[in-house]
Amino acid sequence: MFCPKCKRLMRPDKTAHVWRCSSCGTTVPLGSGAEVGRSNPTGREVSVVEEGKGATLPKTAEECPKCGNPEAYWVLRQTRGADEPETRIFECTKCGHKWREYQ
Fold first, then answer.
1. How far apart, in whole angstroms, are the C-alpha atoms of residue 14 and residue 47?
2. Which residues make Cβ contacts (< 8 Å) with residue 3, sequence separation at least 6?
């Protein structure tokens, strides 16, 4: 989360349940697009920003083989050698089922 005034990185203040800018002191409620969680290995608190897949992944008209939903997110990954074509990986927007399409 970045400060809306000075554009510097804000840190979560768990005692007040807000994001606090260490530079200008601006505060933003913690529930505004982010959650604070615990990391297992170190026990430190970390901030995890979850915007949802809709904000970052493209959608296409591809039918889900599991539920029949006509829309899916997709990404391209180079799963084989560099001289081979990419693999298109789909994820259903409704049930979350994932499948691949090799070209």
1. 11
2. 9, 10, 21, 23, 24, 26
* Residues labelled as active-site residues: 83-84
List Cβ neighbours of 99 (8 Å cut-off, separation of 6 or more): 64, 65, 89, 90
Give the tens place of pLDDT for each residue, 11-66: 888 777 888 888 888 888 876 554 444 445 666 655 555 555 555 788 999 999 99
Domain check: are 29 and 42 in the same one? yes
What is the CB neighbour count within 10 angstroms for residue 15? 7
99, 82, 81: which is closest to 90 by C-alpha?
Answer: 99
The predicted pLDDT at position 63 comes to 94
In a domain? residue 30: yes
- What gap in Å lies between CA 39 and CA 47, rounded to an integer? 10
- CATH number of the domain where residue 69 is located: 2.20.25.10
Task: Please give the residue range of the domain that contains residue 41.
Answer: 10-50
What total number of domains does the chain contain?
A: 2
